[in-house]
Known about the structure:
Elements: H1 3-10, E1 30-32, E2 35-37, E3 52-53, H2 66-73, H3 83-96, H4 102-105, H5 117-132
Helix pairs in contact: 2-5
Amino acid sequence: MPLLWALRDELGVRGPKYGCGIGVCHACTSHLDGKEVLPCVTPVSDAVDKEVTTIEGLADGDVLHPVQQAWIDEDVSQCGYCQPGQIMAAVALLKRIPDPTDEDIDTIENVCRCGTYPRIRRAIKAAAKAMSQG
């Protein structure tokens, strides 16, 4: 069984979205032990004894993760469907590259049908700045 169905159907975790089911759209992007994964193509057995983090686990209580806050500040969302996956991909990118260039940001493969890419880019750069300041 793919991890996505275990999360959504068995655990009621609705943040990771079903978009394509074949690892193309990245709407389901989540983290296993801090690394970006696509639950729609990740067997649930791969998550055994690993920490699974979805958008629901990103905030620290009532304090949003800097990427989540930047998404709000930059008014990124339109329909919002892909945004949990976009945010999780951005968090993974900023872990690897704390001060990403436009080219680094362009390596994120998440699909946004609303075309909010310029706002996504601004939000990632704003989050990087906020994270570098503590």
